[in-house]
Amino acid sequence: MNRSVASKRSSWPVWARRGLMENIATAIIAIGFLMLFQPFALSLYTYSFITMLTGTVMFIIVSKFPE
Which of 23, 46, 60, 66, by CA, is between 20 and 30 Å from 32? Predict the structure, then answer.
């Protein structure tokens, strides 16, 4: 009665799986970098660190989610 790990499906909803959420976290980090390197709005520059930190923490948490 050996079950392959690949045949075992996760009971997590599709939107909460690692692949999609890691892509969203990476996009948030990229938005933070764009906010940091733009020369137009000081408010975007101000919140760039918080945005990158949020994306990084989200990536760390999401990396524990199942495939």
Answer: 66
* Residue 61: exposure state from Cβ atoms within 10 A (0-12, 13-18, ≥19): exposed
d(CA 42, CA 26): 23
Distance (Å) of CA 57 to CA 7, 41, 61, 62, 67 = 30, 25, 6, 9, 19
**Helical ranges in 1-67 per DSSP H:** 18-37, 42-62
pTM for the model:
0.78
pLDDT in tens, 12-39: 788 777 888 999 999 999 999 999 999 8
Q: How far apart are CA 48 and CA 63, in angstroms?
A: 22
